[in-house]
Specification:
alpha/beta; Rossmann fold; 7-stranded parallel sheet; 3-stranded mixed sheet; 9 helices; 12 strands; globular
């Protein structure tokens, strides 16, 4: 549990999209605690955050345990991973092998460590009907990303159920907000809009068919969920984190265009022969368990997320 004795918070992937927001959330909650942003290579971090370059997969478990805890109680948030524009091998390393190394290191750690592992709703089976996904929804992912994330989650849960570590898994919906990667849907559209704005022209937003509806959670809300999980005593289980609402991705793109004020045309380009053989995916997250166990619920709406994303893009 994230008590007064816990003076060290370590965020793996702390310089990445979600990790940066998690670091900021912990720092804002208590500026006296040390917040460490771990990345594989040295990267700039905001004031008040300490950077630590560390290759988790290449560091011996005992050494890794010391580096993460620094000899005292610690909370570790695993926001590391690979998704957009990553190869199957890169996903396997970042989403599975890294977790395996982390779990072994925390098992050996002398001081008490609480692990908050950020999983993904892509670990669930694809949904095509209007039923929210709950923690008991079958986990039969069909993508490499979903499969590798599920293997990482299973490693954490197995270790926690054995009593080797104290850990909780948060299965995150799609995260939206400032810093969205250029390879993500929102990041890609935002970059095209910004370029058109600079050049004084109508943006041509070229995308694959926007048929799906998905759950998006604000990045600040996602960080608040990690903080709530760290403060809780809930262990060895999965808790879903999302907005609790499915949003058509086309409506999301249109919202970003509206917020930007840039004239734009959406051009949908079917992949292959353009024939759709499956119904559009639909995913809404049941967040009642997060409310009951963690006292967490989303506070920001999607327009806030998209507005912040647009405003923080470089001119």
């Amino acid at each position: 549990m994230f008590g007064s004795a816990t003076k060290r918070v370590v965020v793996l992937g702390g310089t990445g999209f979600v990790g940066r927001h998690v670091c900021a959330g912990f720092r804002h909650a208590d500026s006296t605690r040390e917040v460490v942003a771990v990345s594989r290579r040295a990267a700039p971090v905001p004031p008040g955050i300490r950077p630590l370059a560390l290759d988790l997969c290449a560091t011996p478990p005992e050494t890794l345990a010391r580096a993460l805890t620094d000899g005292g109680p610690a909370v570790v948030v695993n926001a590391a991973g690979a998704v957009w524009a990553a190869s199957d091998e890169e996903m396997s390393v970042a989403n599975v092998e890294l977790v395996r190394c982390l779990v072994e290191a925390l098992r050996l750690a002398g001081p008490r460590v609480r692990l908050i592992h950020l999983g993904s709703v892509n670990e669930y089976a694809p949904a095509y009907q209007g039923s929210p996904v709950g923690e008991t929804t079958p986990t039969t992912p069909t993508t490499t990303y979903g499969r590798t994330k599920l293997r990482g989650t299973d490693l954490v849960l197995a270790a926690a159920r054995r009593g080797d570590i104290d850990a909780l898994v948060l299965r995150m919906a799609n995260v939206a907000g400032p810093g969205s990667p250029a390879a993500s849907l929102l990041g890609r559209v935002a970059q095209q809009l910004r370029l058109a704005s600079r050049e004084g022209r109508t943006a041509e937003i070229r995308l694959t068919p926007l048929r799906a509806a998905r759950d998006f959670v604000d990045a600040s809300d996602a960080a608040a969920a990690a903080l709530a999980a760290a403060r809780s005593s809930v262990t060895a289980r999965v808790v879903n984190i999302g907005s609790g609402r499915a949003v058509a991705v086309r409506a999301l793109v249109e919202l970003l265009i509206k917020v930007s004020g840039v004239q734009a045309e959406i051009i949908e380009q079917p992949a292959g022969d353009g024939v759709q053989t499956t119904p559009p995916e639909w995913l809404e997250v049941d967040i009642r368990l997060a409310q009951r166990l963690l006292g967490w619920f989303p506070r920001r709406n999607l327009e806030d997320s998209v507005t912040d994303l647009w405003r923080e893009l470089p001119d």
